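Working notes for the structural subgroup meeting. M.R. asked for a predicted model of this chain before we commit to crystallization trials. I am recording the input and output together here so anyone reviewing the notebook later can reproduce the run.

Input as submitted:
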Amino acid sequence: MNLWRDRNYPIIVSCAKGLAPYTEQELLKMGYKIVEVTENTVVVRGAMRDMMRLNLQLRTAHRVLVPLLRTECYNLDQLYQDVFSIDWENLLEPDSYFTVNNVVHNSTIRDTRMPSLVTKDAIADRMRKHCGGARPDSGPETFGAAFFVYWQDNEMIVYIDTANEPLSKRGYRRIPGDAPMQETLAAGCILASEWDPTTPFVAPMCGSGTPAIEAALIALNRAPGSFKTHFGFESIKGYQLRIPTERVNNVGRRRFGGASPEEIWREMRRDAEAAETPQNMPRILASDINPALTEVASHNAIAAGVAKYITFSSHDFADTEIPPAPGTIFMNPAYGERLGANDDLVALYGRIGDFFKQRCAGYTGCVLTGNMALSRKIGLRSKHRIPFFNGPIECRMMVYDLYQGGEREAIPSNAEIIAELPPEQRRQRKSPNHDDLIIGV
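Returned structure, recorded in token form:
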């Protein structure tokens, strides 16, 4: 394939479990037609500019993948032959660098590191054969090209990983803090809350500051990919070669000699920066009872370039300043392991309910928790219970419409009803099913 010239190839956007509805929402808002959705992928079609745009703009995605080969694969020997059959000499320079990641669920594989090692060997051997004995280096670093192997039972797919390092690693969280919330999960929770970015966003128990920072990025319309210094597509062969059919604007004048992907990417980043909206930013407040965590959150906000839009403070959550309604409050309290194991958490969740009822009238209250028994101690009837995964922990974000003295009852949505069903009754696919989507190499 030619990543730079093909006009309508499949793009598989992967995300964490629970985030696919919000990744799909982002893609629809960007004008894409959805080809397929699974529990952790959304498929669209597009060209080079689309792949770049998705890496730059998506807030809830982890990887942007372009499939190279899909086949049946039964063992490591067959994996080697299948990978060797791809024309890597058209994708990599002999003096370049690449890395390989994988997700493997195959009964013949005891060591999940082996598929990546075999894939690296096959790529290197193919390059030696077609490049006069030269081959690129490989390893775990993230400054070069990246490829991804998905192997479920006997189905194997090889992808170009156009992001390389996952998009969830924005690059601004210099100090993670204890049990930090992943950036993509924070963005997904904010999108699910239906927060109006012209209204206040309040994040008590802010930890390392991720929810408040992501809220500021959304309100500012800052591209989440703007922090990353390298993407995998920048190391694919032909990135700096001019394509006659492509165009970029150069100081307001149209260039007719074509444009390289590198020039297009630079223009895209400039356009994204010009589209930011620092005017009329809402009030965003973040606090934590631990002053050390508040300091960590402040440093991360400085790294993200949004510190001037967030007010940080250190105190008990019940003392949080609440700007005039409407607005959104987001909290991510400790989950605990068993209800009876920590009486302090029982009291904490009860205090959250009191705080909502007494201080937050007119707001939307959101509490992300992995402990539904504890969530009932809040003492309010939720408008929605939205499923998410915080790492391996299945969670719910409880959403409350807060009115003076309590709340109004809401009927759960179909999505929430399905999410509450036992796993065997849920309609889920465990693997990508990209029939007729693979581009031949």
